[in-house]
Design goal:
mainly alpha, 4 strands
């Protein structure tokens, strides 16, 4: 028997419906034998182009889970950056990404690492601005009306490098080095002095394991209100971070709310991996929310609590998250999942996510 006849007698490769995972191989073979280029999944009703199911090289090259670009680490992180940038255009993003693209865990990991790096740099940018405007504290200056006091920025480049590397630290290199010198650091070797400075900078935000502490309190850490400490104490407060976490529930939980809707899980039978993919890339919505939070002067509320007349102040981030989440899920439902009544489904998801966020607010703060 020839090799050609063997290939003809071989059963066709199994092909599944991109949305529900149902085996559509017999339907596809029968439809193509009739010369049809499209068909409908008998399980979920998805209109499918047979060429799209068979193709493996049509993935967008900018997508971090794309199968068309080699997965080298450098290229993977470059595509992660391009994917994050494309998230700013949700309708174009979800219309280009196909349900046929398999999940790439390495690509998702690269995207999440890049997201963490962007969050790191956002806080570092706030600290850099603080150091550039207030890093040297108050100084006597000469003005056209006479001498006066004004806040001056830091002139030490190491201050900016350190706060970029460790943005959660509330002390600058200059402040710690002066403190070390006051505690006898000037009489020790340069290596030991540098080690003490590094320990103090890392210990301030709690990065250093307690077992390594020289004492319960490190005397090299400035105890006064440093410019960064004064600037960040209202946004790094536990209650302020709790507000940010509760607002983050809205975009991250909205895709999962599809599981509660009959149109998606009972009739369309959406595969869980599609919802998980949307949750991962919904993290992009947290970047503008985090930027608004960092730009606020009081973390959208005071650390000591708020009055009953200021309830709207607490939910500002939540209100900002609502339209972003609605548009993102509208594009996801319409262009990626291809469900019926996309705006209604997206609105329902967003409302359910808002209710879950309010429940989280009640559990954390005891009020809504």
């Amino acid at each position: 028997m020839s090799r050609a006849s063997t290939n003809l007698d071989a059963p066709p490769k199994r092909l599944d419906c991109p949305r529900c995972g149902y085996d559509i191989t017999p339907q596809l073979v029968a439809s193509e034998s009739r010369g049809e280029a499209r068909g409908t999944c008998s399980e979920c009703g998805l209109d499918i182009a047979w060429s799209e199911v068979r193709a493996t090289g049509n993935d967008p090259r900018w997508f971090v889970e794309s199968r068309t670009v080699p997965g080298r680490p450098r290229r993977r992180f470059a595509r992660a950056a391009a994917t994050l940038a494309m998230c700013a255009r949700p309708f174009r993003f979800w219309s280009r990404v196909s349900m046929t693209v398999p999940t790439d865990r390495r690509g998702i990991a690269a995207f999440l690492v890049l997201f963490a790096l962007v969050a790191h740099l956002c806080l570092a940018a706030r600290n850099i601005h603080t150091l550039a405007t207030q890093g040297r504290g108050w100084a006597l200056v000469t003005t056209p009306t006479g001498p006066g006091w004004a806040q001056k920025g830091s002139a030490n480049p190491l201050d900016y490098i350190v706060t970029t590397l460790v943005p959660l630290s509330n002390v600058s290199f200059t402040e710690v080095s002066l403190r070390v010198d006051l505690n006898g650091g000037g009489s020790v070797g340069a290596l030991q002095r540098s080690a003490r400075i590094a320990v103090a900078i890392l210990e301030d935000p709690g990065f250093w394991p307690p077992a390594w502490f020289r004492s319960a309190e490190n005397p090299d850490i400035p105890l006064h209100q440093t410019p960064i400490r004064m600037s960040n104490q209202v946004i790094l407060d536990d209650r302020a971070l709790g507000r940010l976490a509760c607002a983050s529930v809205v975009p991250l939980s909205a895709p999962l709310a599809i599981m509660l809707l009959p149109i998606s899980m009972r009739r369309a039978r959406v595969r869980p991996r599609h919802l998980a993919r949307c949750v991962v890339y919904s993290a992009a919505i947290l970047i503008p929310l985090g930027a608004l939070f960092l730009l606020s002067q009081n973390g959208f509320g005071t650390a000591a609590g708020i009055r009953a007349s200021e309830m709207l102040e607490v939910h500002k981030l939540m209100l900002c998250a609502m339209p972003l989440t609605l548009v993102w899920n509208w594009a996801f439902v319409r262009d990626y999942l291809k469900l019926e009544h996309p705006i209604a489904v997206a609105t329902s998801n967003t409302v359910l996510a808002l209710l879950l966020s309010l429940l989280a607010t009640f559990l954390v703060f005891g009020w809504i």
